[in-house]
């Protein structure tokens, strides 16, 4: 069971071109959404909602907006970087079986949100945990997920009737896939490469790097209980 869990973590990918378009069985979708809804949240506010978008017309309108935003980003790149970006597919909006928009309502549980008084974004972080749960559950079920972030929040609010005070955090493309690549798309296309764990691990103070084998401080001499 432990190895199966870590296998899901390793196989999870941000999917674009591999969606088959086949329908998601209802029981599978329910399990995936239940996994997302079971995520931890600050003050037990569960500040997320899930807007399911099966309608092709709505998805076409969203895709048109996303492609326009893609051009905005492409125009900001130098020639070499733009050439790399040109090869990268950024969405699978129409290829996927379903769009799932995950929102954040900061008013849920307010004004007395336990644990948010010092960290205002704790509720937003909670929504990201729900997204991660959804993503991992989908991977375990043989589905792919692709997070689309090339959009303006006001556009998506208007498209889906989301209240002004609620933030659309993610449009997730979800559905069966033909495969999950061993290597993430951005790495395969040479856009960016993953950092080693050692570069992201600090011991005691930021900037003090340590190997994984040094993560747990050793006992001072003479204090061993063995």
TrEMBL record:
It comes from the Bacteria. Residues 9-175 form the Nitroreductase domain. Pfam families: Nitroreductase (PF00881). InterPro entries: BluB (IPR012825), Nitroreductase (IPR029479), Nitroreductase-like (IPR000415), Nitroreductase/BluB (IPR050627). Keywords: Flavoprotein, FMN, Oxidoreductase. GO terms for molecular function: oxidoreductase activity. NCBIfam families: BluB (TIGR02476). This is 5,6-dimethylbenzimidazole synthase. It comes from Amycolatopsis sacchari. The lineage of its organism: Bacteria, Bacillati, Actinomycetota, Actinomycetes, Pseudonocardiales.
